[in-house]
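User: Could you write out the 3D structure of this protein bound to zinc ion? I've included everything you need below.
Assistant: Certainly. Input first, then the structure.
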Amino acid sequence: MVTLVGRATGPPGLLGRVDDCLFCKIVSGEIPGEIVHTTERTVAFRDLNPQAPTHVLVVPRDHYENAAAVAAGDPATAAELVTTAAAVATAEGHDDYRLVFNTGADAGQTVFHAHLHLLAGRDFTWPPG
Ligand code: 5GP
Ligand code: ZN
């Protein structure tokens, strides 16, 4: 079930909050997250299963299924995901980092609330697995 709350009066496609969404619950504080940075449109918190010394997820406060939906529905929020990730990287002392949006189950997306992975603090290989 979809419940419209908070900033749900914005542009078309904005869904506000989805009741059974894990990341909506972290944004609202209903379940705990180790939050490292917040902005008007985004929340950044540490990944529960980190894949690098710094592994932070940056999510829009509003519920969108994936990055493309954020960009289509609210370009300012899409940009703020990236600027927030960069701010967290800088705050944690990293000039070099990797940003990843998994989109779709076959690409590794397991939580269907858009999130930008910020990974830093080790060397990364290419191509990714
Ligand atoms: P995806 O696989 O969808 O790109 O990324 C989802 C990420 O969410 C995974 O890296 C996973 O470790 C993380 N994750 C799953 N459940 C939780 C949780 O309850 N809290 C936090 N902080 N991260 C979670
Ligand atoms: Zn959500």
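The chain is about 25% helix and 20% strand.
User: Perfect, thank you.
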